[in-house]
Amino acid sequence: xxxxxxxxxxxxxxxxxxxxxxxxxxxxxxxxxxxxxxxxxxxxxxxxxxxxxxxxxxxxxxxxxxxxxxxxxxxxxxxxxxxxxxxxxxxxxxxxxxxxxxxxxxxxxxxxxxxxxxxxxxxxxxxxxxxxxxxxxxxxxxxxxxxxxxxxxxxxxxxxxxxxxxxxxxxxxxxxx
Length: 177
What we know:
Strand content: 15-25%
Number of helices: 5
Structural class: alpha+beta
Shape: elongated
Low-confidence stretches: 1-17, 166-177
Helix content: 40-55%
Radius of gyration: 23 Å
Mean pLDDT: 79
């Protein structure tokens, strides 16, 4: 026996179905903007068989809800970086991974910081214009500093896949370098 009255059942079904269509439309719009953030709404609308106004409204609603930001991302593999390295760090006992990440996040050559489990606390990716810049980074920001007790540096030899182009730390709607 159905415990929901008919109007409640219809409302539940209708709401779930509408939500699903909206979510699929949002996902398709986002997918297209990920490929080309400057794709005109008219082109997106044509490909999705909806009106340009619908696309504009969906994009604006997602921006307002902080679900979507459209930004330019440089691809480091397309530029002439001379050194790419991953640095695993063990944070000093009296420090937090967040504090070390905040300090290193201010360095422009650092493009990715991840708090990890295992032997190390943080994994940091950096790209440098010259090999000497990597040595300078290690001397100034890693070796002999009080908030790091151990590190392991792994140089990148060849990039087989980089799905994220250039990794960045996003915080409160601001792009942090």
